[in-house]
Amino acid sequence: MLTSQMVKDRAIKGGADLCGIANIDRFKDGPPETHPSSLFPEAKSVIVYASRILKGSYKGIQEGTEWSTYWIYGYGSGIYSALGGATGAIAALLEEHGHEAVASPGGHTLLDEAPPAREPLAADKQPPCIMLHMRVAAAFAGLGEPGWSKVFLTPEFGPRQRFDILLTDAELEPDPLLDEHVCDKCMACVRKCPGSALGGEREAVEVEGREFEWGRVDCGKCKVTHWGLNPKASPFVKKDLPGMQMDVEKVTYDWYEAYRLGFALAERIDYVNLVAQGTAEHGQGGRPGSVCGAVGCVQACNTHLEARGKLTGGVKGDVE
After folding, report:
1. Which of 211, 208, 192, 206 is nearest to 301 (CA)?
2. What is the DSSP letter of 104?
3. Is a pLDDT exceeding 80 seen at residue 149?
4. Mean pLDDT for the stretch of residues 267-293
5. 146-165 core/surface letters (b: 16 or more CB in 10 A; e: else)
């Protein structure tokens, strides 16, 4: 008989560092465009698993010497290879026990600033752009909580992980929601963000009496900083686009406008263009990447949580 523990053990063996499970009832109050059943109507369980971002991937940006390590290993082939291995391993286990497994394209920013939904293909269907909210799904699977920056925090790695999601028709025992708080609202993320993008209006979801909350993110300010167009975060834009003079405090782009601007200007910034070409060899498609290095939302948060002794580092015994 298939058990939740078998699924979690297989996820860890497949390459993930963490795995949690939510039942479908925890999503009942969510909007249809983010509901698992809109993607897979027979879904009974939502499996969420994560791979850690290694602390060393930030070192070059901290020293001001090298930006590509975080770009490649914090976003690219290193971490998503591990998640891909876990996806295949879990899906194979489910199919071996007669169940289906459907991978979900979970998202974050797209759900906040998505374009208008396309028309449904049929009268009884949702528009063809269903996307689960990755951070909400991870919270409902008992893995942790969103921090005030909206970056997801786990007791093991704080803000340093990325997630994937599998939906299944197997009825698995859900994990309990995390009842403690990882985020203590120190606001280091808000103070240290070079894009002044964090700490906006409070947002929250509630499930089974547990409330998860975060501060709204200014996604336009975040994205221009992430792409390296904010002179406060990037030395390259000052050198190669000296006339741009972007004042991030006055930026009013939405996420999509900032996203497109990054692609338009990346090839005119020598270092960004060079690294973008290099990352194409690592499965990144040559796109511009994280020049900001997540200075506030990840690095400052992680430093604070480690100083308080809040993180376990994912120490665990071998999985048999």
Report:
1. 192
2. E
3. yes
4. 71
5. bbbbbbbbbbbbbbbbbbbb
